[in-house]
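One chain given next:
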Amino acid sequence: MDALSMLLENVHLCETKYYSLKGSGDWSYSITKKDTILFYLVMSGSFCINVDEASRKAYAGDMIMIPNAHRHVCYALDYNGDNAQPLDDTLSNCEEHLIELNNTGFNNTDFNTVSEPNSCLILIECKYDKELIRPLLSALPMILPEHEDQPESRFEILEVGIKLLRLESEHERMGKTAVINHWASIMMIECLRTYIESLPEADDSWLKALKDPYLAKALAVMHDSPNQNWTIHKLAEVAGMSRSSFAQRFKDVVGIPPLTYLIDYRLRLASRYLRLQQNSISRISELVGYASDSTFSQAFKRVYGVSPKVYRQQYQKELAV
């Protein structure tokens, strides 16, 4: 299995919601979401999107991913988002997945009144496991793709995805939520691999390691078998390099030594297992490659500030609130 597939093996999008937005006139809005990945599928027309200092235009056939934004603004082409009103409450109260955008505001009750829309969009929002996906999101730009002139921004998967969403929204079938969550994950993978494939050699993103013919092999086995007793020597053998060359190359590209990366992944994976509450702490210790519970507990506490037991208890209390 390739390195990106292994990197995303335990990354799952969840609580996916989707909305059809139709804009007419000089429309604009803002959305403020924490710990949420957002996608825009542009069915027709065009619009502008601003995320912090990043900005771009999107056109029919584009798929846009906002990986890690707290707030963003969207508005009609040749307009501006200076007076954008929050759309968050409208999204929360939208039961039909349909929202009209116009000069005066938003409407999710009389969708058929909109005339000659200049933009038809599908907005998709997803939650995710913050710990497991944190390093990946931190390496991504505010908007994917970054520029509207990139031919990669037009995805063949768009048409298929729209058909699937329509089918799932029209019928209440078993597994509906799982289907939509999995499809959102496919969209994320499509955006990620297109971005990684287009990274220039001079780029300083650690994601370049995923397409490095040597480092990708080592990353894949670390994610595939984090419980194995990996050493620099063993990882160098997998990569097909000498020990010193591998260690230096990994640190230069990824930014940290190989075993530091492995420890970080093991503990992030352990935090996920603790939150899932499906295994004992002793079993989790084995799953992430620690020889004893005490060694695991000490390593976990150094990073998270509390023992695995306390971490699990705190999470249980948060769920109960």
